[in-house]
């Protein structure tokens, strides 16, 4: 398996999404067609695909279904990973109830919260446990992915407990930079960062239109 | 106002979060202290802060509250921006109900959905309208931020309607690369991309441990 950059890795789900949106009769697809459809560079797409699949044929392109399988296999979507969420507020519960993650090989089996009024069984049968049981249950269920949706002040402690219990990848929705040992990956989903980008763009547009009005 | 890179812009919310977590009596704070607390480079923090605030004094550092105000002003958090959500599934409703966005100057005033069973008034008083009224209501309420949480196939059309109605910044949770005119910003929040990164990390760790076992 060739190694792949993080940037290339992040483009693979886009390709996958596009390939899956093609009409069922699309037997073959070229890197050029994918590049054009997604507004990406031809060379880049060609290189990204070559890193994950050896099905490319000159003038023919890729066998569409084979390419889908190769990307999914590379991304590990064919192995279902078990995950838990800590923090069962609005966002945590939304993620717990969202049924689209199975497409990505992710099965969120349970949530944890310190607030006992949130504990119990949800409509979809998934359970919210006391956070005091986090370590024990992660170990027992061999959970490898931990999702953090707690407030900033609690995030590092939750992260430490998860990792002690064997978690290898953390999906972090709290606005904190987490410290983790080597070999553990943190993927930050920082909404505050996104909002900063949006908000600053608007502030700038506003200043521009005020200057235009002068 | 100095210009600032997107990378620097994305670090500002981290600084802000840290500054707000300091004990109330922290009158002054140095760039070095911030850098150490967040594991960032000293020079970088110094440069980032200088771009948004001129309160820095040699050997004293920054007046903490003044620095918080300067960052918030730069990010436009002191102007409340009105936003709407299109797509009132689990994620859309979670965002609509989340009360933490006001901290970032974002007020999500309403949601829209094509499914009439989702339309109506929520517990918190916010309303979910038919998506057919999106353009009209965005114009009337002078909405400048649009949040997209619809399935992939519907996203571009929703985006076009928003922009026609005056939206200048789009927060996109759908797994689609949106096409927008110059002057409009798209901030992608692509969960599929994050999941790809997490999943591939685990697949790699799994392969490593299998190789070790051989």
TrEMBL record, chains A, B:
InterPro entries: CoA-bd, NAD(P)-bd_dom_sf, Rex_DNA-bd_C_dom, Tscrpt_rep_Rex, WH-like_DNA-bd_sf, WH_DNA-bd_sf. Residues 77-177 form the CoA-binding domain. Transmembrane segments: none annotated. It comes from the Bacteria. GO terms for biological process: negative regulation of DNA-templated transcription; response to redox state. It is found in: Cytoplasm. One of its GO terms (molecular function) is DNA binding. GO terms for cellular component: cytoplasm. Pfam families: CoA_binding, Put_DNA-bind_N. Modulates transcription in response to changes in cellular NADH/NAD(+) redox state. Homodimer. NCBIfam families: PRK05472.2-3, PRK05472.2-4, PRK05472.2-5. Belongs to the transcriptional regulatory Rex family. This is Redox-sensing transcriptional repressor Rex.
């Amino acid at each position: 398996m060739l190694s792949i950059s993080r940037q290339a890795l992040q483009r693979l789900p886009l390709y996958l999404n596009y390939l899956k949106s093609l009409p069922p009769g699309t037997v073959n697809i070229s890197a050029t067609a994918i590049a054009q459809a997604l507004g990406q560079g031809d060379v880049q797409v060609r290189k990204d695909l070559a890193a994950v699949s050896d099905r490319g044929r000159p003038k023919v392109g890729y066998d569409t279904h084979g390419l889908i399988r190769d990307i999914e296999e590379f991304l590990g979507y064919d192995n279902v990973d078990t995950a838990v969420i800590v923090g069962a507020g609005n966002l945590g519960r939304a993620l717990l109830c969202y049924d689209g993650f199975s497409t990505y090989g992710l099965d969120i089996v349970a949530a944890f919260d310190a607030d006992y009024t949130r504990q119990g069984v949800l409509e979809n049968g998934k359970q919210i446990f006391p956070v005091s049981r986090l370590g024990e249950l992660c170990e027992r269920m061999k959970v490898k992915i931990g999702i953090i949706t707690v407030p900033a002040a609690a995030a590092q402690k939750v992260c430490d407990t998860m990792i002690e219990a064997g978690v290898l990848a953390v999906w972090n929705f709290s606005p904190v930079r987490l410290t983790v040992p080597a070999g553990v990956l943190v993927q930050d989903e920082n909404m505050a960062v996104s909002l900063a980008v949006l908000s600053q763009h608007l502030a700038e547009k506003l200043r521009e239109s005020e200057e235009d009005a002068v």
